[in-house]
Structure formats: structure tokens, C-alpha cells
Specification:
Structural class: alpha/beta
CATH architecture: 3-Layer(aba) Sandwich
Largest sheet: 7 strands, parallel
CATH topology: Rossmann fold
Number of domains: 1
Order of helices and strands: EHEHEHEHEHEHEHH
Number of helices: 8
CATH class: Alpha Beta
Shape: globular
């Protein structure tokens, strides 16, 4: 792995641990010589992780649609900024630039981004590792929903392992480094094997 894409809230959240863990993740990326790919904002958790990597001399690549420059407030100190037109282009570019994905706490946008890369992994578009940094149990309800969907027969059992979840940034990055996709092929593979 050379580059990790981090999805995160453009707000800081109410729990101070969210910002602390964004900075811890940034320091861990630096310690491993990993470059950061993210949405390009200087706000919220997005800005925290980016600033931590930049302040340590690391490389940070932002991707942002022109229409969000004022709302998300584009970061002016990035190593590279890719300006795109649409959110679809943004996500495709972030995917293309990255070797793996991590979601910090966030809202609708973060959920949508992480679920899109999980869905892409499920149908065989990529086999890159995907992780959740479960700060103070933030992602525990989401993991319960995934378990529920698996038990209800909507997610094949083996594909419940597409997402790695840890509460420690170093452990999460170790697991992403050692990641092996749970299945070859796509979500229909285990349905057609006989």
C-alpha cells in the first residue's frame, strides 16, 4: 500500500475523541510513509487528518468538486488538489488514486462513500482493503446492521468480512496491510459455486 483514502466528517463531531483519533490516524500514516487521499476540505475531521499529515511532512492529495469549494472550504496547503466537476467524479478519482480505504466518524457523506467502496468490492470492481476506525463505538450500530442484513440473507456470509473494523489506528492499518479478500469474484460467486 502506498496511498490510503480516508473518508471523514466535514464537521468535528461533539466527542473530542473524534478529532484526537483523526490526528492519531494522520500520525500513523506518516510513520508508515503512507500518502493520504481525501476529499480536500480543511474543515472538521477531514481537515484534522490532512493537517496532521501535512505538518509531519507527508503527502496529501485532495479531490473536490468545484461547486463545493466554498461550502467545504477547500484546503489551500495540499500537496496536490484534483478539481473535478461532480461528486461521482470525485469518488471515482479518490478510488483510482488509493490502495485502501478508511472511514473515520462522519455523517451521510461518509456513510455513502464507505458503502460505495464496499459495494464495489462486493461486485468485484476492486479487491482493496476497507476499514472502519471505530472511535468510541461510533460504528458499532452500523456493524450490527450489517450483521442483521447478513442474518436476513441480504449479504452473503463470507462478504460480511469485506470490512475490517478496529478502534486503534495502528492495528487497523496492520490489518489493512495484511488484508486478503474473503472471496474471489463477486457477490454472486458463492451462490453459483456447486
Amino acid at each position: 500500500m502506498k496511498r490510503i483514502c480516508v473518508f471523514a466528517g466535514s464537521n468535528p463531531g461533539v466527542n473530542p475523541a473524534y478529532a484526537q483519533y483523526a490526528e492519531m490516524l494522520g500520525r500513523e500514516l506518516l510513520a508508515r510513509g503512507l500518502e493520504l487521499v481525501y476529499g480536500g476540505s480543511n474543515m472538521g475531521l477531514m481537515g484534522r487528518v490532512a493537517n496532521t499529515v501535512l505538518e509531519g511532512g507527508g503527502k496529501v492529495i485532495g479531490v473536490m468538486p468545484t461547486g463545493l469549494f466554498r461550502g467545504e472550504i477547500v484546503h489551500k496547503g495540499l500537496t496536490e488538489l484534483h478539481e473535478v466537476v461532480t461528486m461521482h467524479e470525485r469518488k471515482a478519482k479518490m478510488h483510482d488514486l488509493s490502495d485502501g480505504f478508511i472511514a473515520l466518524p462522519g455523517g451521510y457523506g461518509t456513510f455513502e462513500e464507505i458503502f460505495e467502496v464496499v459495494s464495489w468490492g462486493q461486485i468485484g470492481i476492486h479487491s482493496k482493503p476497507i476499514g472502519l476506525l471505530n472511535v468510541d463505538g461510533f460504528y458499532t450500530p452500523l456493524l450490527e446492521m450489517v450483521r442483521h442484513a447478513t442474518e436476513a440473507g441480504f449479504i452473503p456470509q463470507m462478504q460480511g468480512e469485506l470490512v475490517v473494523c478496529e478502534s486503534d489506528p495502528a492495528v487497523l492499518l496492520d490489518r489493512l496491510r495484511d488484508y486478503k479478500p474473503p472471496v474471489k469474484g463477486n457477490k454472486w460467486s458463492e451462490l453459483t459455486e456447486e
